[in-house]
């Protein structure tokens, strides 16, 4: 649940710190005092879209911090998936909004992205406000209520996978259905490219080998002279002895005295080893000299081959490996086009199988939704009857439609609020107060389907009063027994039921507006209820009535 909320420089709130409790937390205050700013701040820390316009006038940045404790296993799992750990089920989420730089987000002190905040926040708090009324007014979203109540997510995922596979095959089939002349043009081009690359008969590493051969031919004379000179210096000529002969003489001289001077034995062995090594080098140099004198290739032919590879590389890839990959890909595409009719028929057959599979899964989903819809209608009607709408009639219209990402069902909730009227679309029938109660009824029906510990109701009392307001309060109180509830309200009947009551008050000082959030004690609650009931002038009678309300509830 949400344990603490700290807000700094958000709109008219300079600094405020709110400690929420279990059960029902109520926020009240004059219109324009800043109740919506608290909700905006929570939205911001949950990763929802926000604006720099929220930053308090004269400030460079704004900051919100929310501390949650005893979070659900699902929320903890999401945190772990994003690489964050909790300590005893506690997590602190912070967000800074800056005028001149990119904002910053943190989870338990470590940097995070807005996307991560949003992913985690989805499993921490559920905010019910005007957006939910928009959902009720949008028939295309009604199917989500049925699916959530039925707990058929695995079936939906199975269908979505099958539908995606069918759409992929259909797309491939659509691409295959192109003009015959275009297909022939494509075949001609591919045949030319394949022939050109196959005739080149290249292999990986050939280009490097050719460059080495060219360098060898271009420097043949220089190479031969250097090798011959080296061989002559080592092996000697007709009239002079070489290094090897002199080294051999040195070895003989040392060998002759090792008998008398044992310290020379090691030097003799080392010189002898060096002589053997030089003999090997001399032999290898002689072989290299012979090969340098032999025919190592035609320079003109090598240049032509290098030129061919370079010319092809400008069309098919910067390296021989890339060009050979291009060749294999082109051969496969050419084979596909040449076997066009056969491939198309095979693709059509697979596409039909995929469509049939998706249709069967969609049909199964539709049958499940039909049963769930009956249960949904009955349970929501029961809730709305309690909320002072005894004559409500609610049905779920389910019509078959073309296969789409959600199945083959066109689902819309229809409602009648008066006796004798046929159910019609919500947007044509429901008033603001009826929408609020219907929203609360649906959320209560779906409450056990959400693994979320904190629910926020923003002005759920819109358009209601009297006994309806009292029953909305009782329903909120009922919900708060199993999870934390935060409610922004203008009604005394709801505010009186709070376990914790916070007053949001706006003051003007030195030409600036300041909003403060204050936790109310018993006397403070009595005075605030009196203000809500009595308006501008609060009499003793009003205060006594507010006290009576609080006592009756506590009893």
Relevant terms:
Rossmann fold; 20 helices; 15 strands; 6-stranded mixed sheet; 555 residues; alpha/beta; 6-stranded antiparallel sheet
Strand content is 15-25%
* CATH H level, superfamily name of the domain at 1-124 and 452-520: P-loop containing nucleotide triphosphate hydrolases
Question: Which stretches are poorly predicted, pLDDT < 50 over at least 5 residues?
Answer: none
CATH class type of the domain at 1-124 and 452-520: Alpha Beta
- The CATH topology name of the domain at 1-124 and 452-520 reads Rossmann fold
The biggest sheet amounts to: 6 strands, antiparallel
Q: Give the CATH architecture of the domain at 1-124 and 452-520.
A: 3-Layer(aba) Sandwich
Q: What integer is the average pLDDT?
A: 88
What's the count of strands? Answer: 15
Specify Rg, calculated over alpha carbons.
42 Å
Tell me, briefly, the overall form: elongated
Question: In which range does the helix fraction lie?
Answer: 55-70%
Structural class: alpha/beta
Gap from first CA to last CA: 27 Å
| Count of helix runs | 20
Strand order of the largest sheet: 2-1-4-5-6-7
């Amino acid at each position: 649940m949400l344990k603490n909320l700290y807000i700094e420089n958000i709109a008219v709130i300079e600094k405020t710190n709110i400690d929420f409790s279990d059960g029902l937390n109520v926020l009240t205050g004059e219109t324009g005092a800043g109740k919506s700013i608290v909700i905006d701040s929570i939205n911001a820390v949950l990763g929802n879209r926000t604006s720099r316009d929220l930053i308090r006038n004269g400030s460079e940045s704004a900051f919100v911090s929310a501390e949650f404790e005893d979070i659900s296993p699902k929320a903890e799992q999401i945190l772990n998936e994003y690489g964050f750990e909790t300590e005893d089920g506690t997590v602190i989420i912070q967000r800074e909004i800056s005028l001149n730089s990119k904002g910053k987000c943190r989870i338990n002190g470590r940097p995070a992205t807005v996307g991560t905040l949003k992913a985690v926040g989805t499993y921490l708090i559920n905010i019910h406000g005007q957006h939910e009324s928009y959902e009720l007014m949008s028939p295309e979203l009604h199917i989500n209520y049925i699916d959530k109540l039925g707990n058929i997510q695995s079936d939906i995922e199975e269908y979505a996978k099958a539908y995606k596979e069918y759409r992929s095959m259909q797309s491939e089939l659509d691409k295959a259905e192109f003009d015959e002349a275009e297909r022939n043009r494509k075949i001609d081009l591919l045949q030319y490219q394949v022939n050109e690359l196959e005739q080149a008969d290249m292999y990986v590493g050939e280009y490097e080998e050719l460059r080495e051969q060219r360098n060898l031919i271009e420097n043949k004379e220089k190479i031969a002279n250097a090798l011959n000179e080296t061989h002559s210096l080592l092996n000697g000529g007709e009239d002079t002895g070489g290094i090897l002969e002199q080294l051999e003489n040195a070895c003989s001289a040392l060998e002759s005295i090792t008998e008398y001077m044992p310290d020379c034995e090691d030097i003799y062995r080392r010189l002898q080893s060096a002589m053997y090594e030089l003999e090997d080098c001399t032999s290898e140099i002689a072989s290299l000299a012979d090969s340098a004198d032999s025919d190592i290739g035609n320079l003109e032919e090598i240049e032509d081959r290098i030129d061919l590879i370079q010319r092809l590389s400008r069309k098919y890839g910067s390296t021989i490996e890339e060009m050979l990959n291009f060749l294999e890909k082109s051969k496969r595409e050419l084979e596909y086009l040449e076997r066009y009719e056969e491939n198309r028929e095979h693709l059509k057959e697979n596409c039909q199988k995929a469509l049939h599979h998706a249709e069967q899964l969609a049909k199964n989903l539709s049958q499940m939704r039909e049963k769930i819809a009956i249960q949904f209608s009955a349970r929501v009607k029961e809730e709305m009857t309690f909320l002072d709408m005894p004559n409500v009639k609610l049905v779920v219209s389910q019509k078959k439609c073309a296969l789409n990402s959600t199945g083959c069902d066109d689902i819309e909730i229809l409602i009648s609020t008066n006796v004798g009227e046929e159910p019609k679309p919500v947007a044509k029938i429901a008033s603001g107060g009826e929408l609020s109660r219907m929203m609360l009824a649906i959320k209560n029906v779906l409450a056990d389907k959400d693994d979320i510990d904190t629910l926020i109701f923003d002005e759920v009392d819109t358009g209601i009063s009297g006994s309806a307001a009292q029953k909305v309060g009782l329903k909120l109180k009922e919900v708060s027994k199993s999870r934390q509830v935060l409610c922004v309200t203008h009604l005394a009947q709801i505010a009186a039921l709070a376990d914790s009551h916070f007053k949001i008050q706006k003051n003007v000082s030195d030409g600036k507006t300041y909003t403060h959030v204050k936790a109310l004690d018993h006397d403070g609650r009595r005075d605030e209820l009196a203000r809500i009931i009595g308006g501008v002038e609060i009499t003793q009678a009003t205060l006594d009535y507010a006290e009576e309300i609080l006592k009756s509830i506590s009893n």
